[in-house]
Amino acid sequence: MKIEIQIQDNISEQSIEELLMTSWQLPKKMRHLLRMQKGLAVNGESLAWSSKVKAGDCIQISLRPEDFPEPELLPGNPELADILYEDEHLIVANKPEAMKTHPNSPGEFALQNHLASKIGHPVYVVHRLDTETSGAILFAKHPLILPMLNRLLEEGKIHRNYLTLIEGQLPMPEMTVNKAIGRDRHDRHKRLVTKSGQTAISHFKTLEIFNKKSLVSCLLDTGRTHQIRVHLTSMGHPIIGDPLYSKAKDRLMLHARQISFPHPFTGQVLNISASSKTFDEGYQKEKQDKNQRDS
Can you give the CATH number for the domain in which 211 is found? Predict the structure, then answer.
């Protein structure tokens, strides 16, 4: 696999080694392989890693498939891949509800398959959305940028904003929930709030209240499995249509409406929004029920 990156103005003049280790923070193993296999060139020339590079220079990276194997994916349906943003390094898609982020077993199809078929080569999972959740989701297009995006996620620099419709009303218009989440020993499909779990922090803001329900905005500092669903359920306000923690309806009323993060190579902050027809329809249906009761 060959990858080209033009150094942007956000990178000051520095050595190749500094670029890879400090600016891009590539994993040690990846840097070692690039050095040993002479897998890096600058403007078409193989240079010593002490050589300086600057904005405008073109870095060419060669990754051997035996060192960085591509995910094996069955051909998907390109028409099911709704791309919101794409460049040569990463891609953001709009996942519909009732579709998995990635296949979990041979023969299974998911958004990852459909995206790969649409763009003509495999994509790499950066984070996940529950099958029942719709919205913006980020994938890497090559192994070089994958650890950079993973690091942004670990450092809390990939911000995800969700909309959800819940039962009842939160105790405060704006509130932060900091409750650890772990596995439910009695149900392997569920998670619950537990002191022995992993740190989980969610920020909630009530946008609208009607018919004993609330439209709520959610921002996550962490990305635990079922985090929003578990935090809201723990307060007695499960998400409308949650088949696991409440009662199933047409769909789980949880939608990832925006994702924002700094591009690893340019430093530009990308703000990408996603819409959902079925979420909007579910919201309007609940509003109509309120209006009918009020009339």
Answer: 3.30.2350.10
